[in-house]
Specification:
It is built from eleven helices and five strands. With about 300 residues, it is mainly alpha-helical. The strands form two sheets. A three-stranded mixed sheet has the order 2-1-4.
């Protein structure tokens, strides 16, 4: 029988054990985190105060920015703390809380990305009925669906069901399921199975909505006679497709594989991308190629200068 040990805290091995690199990583990720907060909170404020951004697309975008703020804040502060700390520990309860919010926010984000794809389909393929079918009541109801967090609670309870036999060193910079499964010595199979099944179901249905929506969008755009209309449609969808590709690609790479030493090490590098870099890039992706957002920013700057 395995010699199960009561767990009070874990040690997060982080990205590197080299002191010089830890200081460098601290400075880099601190800057990235500050840019993430400023960019996403700025996007939320801009959408809320700009009359030309009061449409379903920007309503969903404001929620995506809201989720990105919490997604990054769930992981980055503890990572920054451990980069400068000698102990690099996280309590058992803190680990479960981090797991809970991480899974919850991932599910919310993939749902929002799917809803945004459906919204683009409605706007491009059914423009005459878009205003009535995507009324404020409809899109508020759509966005309220994923905030239940019930799936996350179930997944976290299975994480709570893991047993450990003295190895409390997590080969990661936050409490992620794959490295936790790798060091556990009991309750592994059910946790591993549920992780792959639930992640597979969520990614499959949300990605199916995205793929079907964009297949119909491409078909509708190719039938347009106006070159300007086609260009505008592809420009509107391009930023969303970029965000979808980055987020889904990195998560599928990490969570739809069985945890091994190699996959955990590779997943740690990929996790840097979707926990810190993608939340920072999303406001840039949706603003740099978006005429409405640029105009809204210019108007805010002009108003601020006039007040001075």
């Amino acid at each position: 029988m395995p010699n199960f040990t009561d767990v009070t805290e874990f040690i997060l091995l982080g990205l590197t054990s080299h002191q010089e690199l830890q200081i460098l990583f601290f400075m880099v990720f601190l800057v990235v985190y500050m840019i993430t907060l400023i960019g996403n909170i700025g996007m939320i404020i801009l959408i809320s105060i700009s009359p030309q951004l009061q449409s379903p697309m920007y309503f969903f975008l404001s929620h995506l920015s809201f989720v990105d703020v919490w997604f990054s804040s769930n992981v980055t502060p503890k990572m920054l703390e451990n980069l400068l700390s000698e102990t690099k520990t996280i309590s058992y309860v803190g680990c479960l809380v981090q797991c809970y919010f991480f899974i919850a926010l991932v599910h919310v984000e993939v749902y929002i990305l799917a809803v945004m794809a459906f919204d683009r389909y409605m706007a491009i393929c059914n423009p005459l009925h878009y205003g009535s079918k995507m009324s404020r009541t409809v899109y508020v109801r759509l966005i309220s669906v994923p905030y239940g967090f019930s799936v996350s609670l179930i997944c976290t309870l299975w994480t709570y069901g893991l047993y450990f036999c003295g190895n409390f060193k997590i080969n990661h910079f936050y409490c992620a399921d794959p490295p936790l499964i790798k060091i556990a010595c009991g309750g592994v199979h059910i946790k591993e199975y549920t992780m792959i099944v639930i992640a597979g179901i969520n990614f499959t249905y949300s990605l199916s909505v995205v793929l079907v929506s964009y297949t119909l969008i491409v078909a509708a755009v190719l039938c347009m006679h106006s070159a300007d209309g086609r260009r505008k449609a592809f420009s509107t969808c391009g930023s969303h497709l970029t965000a979808v590709t980055m987020f889904y690609g990195s998560l599928i790479f990490m969570y739809l594989r069985r945890p091994t030493e190699e996959s955990v090490e590779q997943g740690k590098m990929v996790a840097v991308f979707y926990t810190t870099v993608i939340p920072m890039l999303n406001p840039m992706i949706y603003s740099l190629r978006n005429k409405d957002v640029k105009e809204a920013v210019n108007k805010v700057i002009i108003k601020a200068n006039l007040r001075q």
